[in-house]
Amino acid sequence: MKILIFVFLFSIINASDYPNFTIQELHSIEKKSGTVAKNRIIDYEQSIALFKKYPKSKQLIQVNFYLNKLLPQYDAITQQQEDYWSTPKEFLITGYGDCEDYVIIKYFTLLKLGFKKEKLFLTTVREKYYGGYHMVLSYFKDKNKPPLILDNLSFKVLDLKKRVDLEADIFINSNGVYKISKEYKLTKIDNKFKQYEDLEKRIIKEN
């Protein structure tokens, strides 16, 4: 029975209406986090409703541009811990996030707009010029073609081949963990990624 309940709840977080907020939630958020937080959420919901009228190519650009306007901040400051993956609701309430938080909210926002989860991946990349690691969102519009990259450090949506500053490491979504070949073919290397699993569990609790 517990397995069936989990499967049902898991389907919720991959449904097209997440993140969504009830009136009661908005009242609670306003009381706890202030009017600015509540208004940020309302603006998000209104903007996504507007984006639904656009073609998919424009939706990618608009989602990337809109969510990049949220303010960057290290996890150690916003969450008092390193490498914390905020849920979209947490990010919208605080208004601050690290690179993975932008990726997560873009991922679920695009699902909300009708994009297929099989084409969307949280992607860790190495920054060739700086040597550090970063996270972006990849969208595989066409199979075995370079994915389009949504990056909180860029308002442009370019394909991976044109992002000469980035070297892709792993691709993550609810189906598993993948590596990519030089021909842009994905190969599954694992069924699970712990931080993604933890994120899903916290999203389920939100609902």
TrEMBL record:
Listed Pfam families: Peptidase_C93
Entries under InterPro entries matching the protein: Transglutaminase-like_Cys_pept (IPR010319)
Protein name as annotated: Transglutaminase-like cysteine peptidase
Source organism per UniProt: Candidatus Sulfurimonas marisnigri
